[in-house]
Design brief:
12 strands, globular, alpha/beta, about 15% strand, 8-stranded parallel β-barrel, about 350 residues
Length: about 350
């Protein structure tokens, strides 16, 4: 879901000497996306109060807007901050100093590096915003080098959020492959993620799969409700979410990068505006996703390894483009009251 979202530097040579794999002994964080494509939202200070009051410890911001960032300063909330698509060309064409200055003026001037968990360089660029594709990797390299100079590369991880459509085939999961048209750039991204212990970030909406493929995908399967099963490589899949995550894992394995963890940077279910879009289904879907993350359920291919997720969205966004349901993913009303009784911890 869009929220508004080849040159390799010679100093960046990585070795392929280790396998990245993660096992979380404690529950992975449950994050929420804080989108602001609306004209009726409460002030950011009020939003931060809603976030802290409800015990939410991880937030994704799509843009480093000072008005949005500053109220988070001094809180214990960890942030995943987007580097907007439109900023990628200048960062990519610049130097490490360019990237440092961008970070300082856009982020570090407003919030401490200690609160930043991820920098998400571009949102759904490959395939959906191809103009920016050639700028993603150079921008990532410049930002990484700037963080390296500041001794922040262990604290702040860099990735780029991808749409699920970067998979040209995802069924069955073991047959998943990436779209060959983007593979040269995606492979460079995967190498960077591997060598910096960073995650592949993907936006996963089983709701879209359900409404577009109802002859193959049942509502219960999309909602993570038990019922039907699908067996692939002796692994049993009881829901579409697990299938999608494992499809990415298999696709990365096929390219030689099977150890990279997956972070879901957007997932959710709408409460209005489309078929099966209502509060009851949103509660079931998001509730099941949260329970699986908190309990480190993992997926059939990586059992016991929790999948970190960012639920979409904090509020409805009444100025979103596209289908009507795009405007109705809010977990909270603008008055701070939950749209449905979702337990987040």
């Amino acid at each position: 879901m869009m929220n508004c979202t080849r040159t390799i530097h010679p100093f960046f040579i990585f070795s392929h000497t280790f396998l990245i794999f993660f096992h979380f002994s404690v529950a992975v964080p449950i994050g929420i996306c804080y989108g602001r494509v609306a004209n009726n939202l409460p002030p950011p200070t009020t939003a931060v109060n809603i976030i802290t009051t409800n015990g939410i410890s991880s937030i994704r911001l799509f843009n480093p807007n000072p008005e949005s960032l500053q109220p988070f300063s001094g809180t214990r909330i960890q942030l995943a901050i987007g580097v907007p698509n439109e900023d990628l060309p200048s960062i990519a064409a610049g130097t490490t100093t360019t990237a440092h200055n961008w970070l300082q003026s856009n982020i570090f001037a407003h919030v401490s590096p200690d609160q930043i968990r991820y920098l998400i360089v571009g949102n759904e660029v490959f395939l959906k915003e191809p103009y920016y594709t050639s700028h993603v990797i150079p921008a990532i390299f410049n930002i990484y080098q700037a963080l390296h100079i500041l001794n922040l590369t262990d604290k702040i991880k860099i990735s780029s959020a991808q749409a699920a459509s970067i998979l040209s085939n995802s069924y069955p999961p073991s047959h998943a492959i990436f779209d060959p048209n983007i593979l040269p750039d995606l492979t460079r991204l995967l190498r960077f993620l591997h060598d910096t212990s960073s995650p592949l970030m993907v936006n996963v909406y089983t709701y879209f799969s359900y409404i577009n493929n109802q002859e193959y995908v049942t509502l219960d399967y999309a909602l993570l409700k038990s019922g039907s099963e699908m067996i692939d490589q002796n692994l049993v899949y009881e829901n579409l979410f697990d299938m999608t995550i494992d499809a990415f894992i298999y696709a990365m394995e096929r390219e030689g990068y099977g150890g990279i963890r997956v972070v879901v940077t957007e997932t959710g279910w709408p409460t209005a505006g489309g078929e099966a879009a209502n509060g009851e289904n949103a509660l079931v879907y998001n509730g099941n996703v949260v329970k699986r993350s908190l309990n480190n359920v993992g997926t059939p291919k990586r059992p016991g390894i929790g999948v970190e997720v960012f639920l979409f969205d904090l509020f409805d966004e009444n100025e979103k483009m596209g289908n009507e349901f795009e405007k109705h993913f809010g977990i909270f009303g603008i008055n701070g009251v939950k749209a449905y009784d979702l337990v987040l911890y």
